[in-house]
Amino acid sequence: MKLAYVALLATSLAFWACSDDESSSTKPANETPSSSSEKDTKDNGSQSESYDCTTEDGVVVVYPKGGETFKLGETIKVVYGADPSLAGPQFVFKYRENEEDMGTELIEESAGEKNPDGKTCYEQEVKLDGDLINPSSEAFIQVVPYSKTKKNGKSGKFTVTE
């Protein structure tokens, strides 16, 4: 019986020691980790550890928060959170010039966190490509889950210049 306890303890310690290995992360390759120990080196206000991404229903987009000014061609980080019911297929990241605009997809394929937990902030880089979008003073980013499109989230309104 003592041998069983020793084996269980050894196994537990082995799993615990491996859990700190960043190479075992399940994040997609294009996803930037958002742990509090990492610092964002790009100064566009998107350090995910400074935001509250808690949500129990759908997507919440916390950056851009509104009032920022970006230029066409610039790459920005969208910071968002999503509830666990949206696990599985990922998200569409759309640029909308205003409320009437249907939006332009900024990434050719689905992107973002596959297993959101409703608490963590996730970051996704998107390029404000001048070949795809127009400047606007009422622009925002809309993050739309593939599985439940009505649970989308919108950023605050920002300006995009040439």
Span between termini: 72 Å
Q: What is the 3D shape?
A: globular
Number of contiguous helices = 1
**Beta-strand fraction estimate:** 25-35%
CATH superfamily name?
Answer: Immunoglobulins
- Second-tier CATH architecture: Sandwich
How do the strands and helices of this protein lay out in sequence?
Layout: H1 2-18, E1 59-63, E2 69-71, E3 75-82, E4 91-96, E5 104-105, E6 122-127, E7 136-145, E8 153-154, E9 158-161
Task: Give an overview in words.
The structure is a single chain. With 162 residues, this protein is mainly β. It has one domain: Immunoglobulins (Immunoglobulin-like, Sandwich). The protein contains one helix and nine strands; from the N terminus they run H-E-E-E-E-E-E-E-E-E. A hairpin with a 7-residue loop joins strand 7 and strand 8. The termini are far apart. The N terminus is likely disordered.
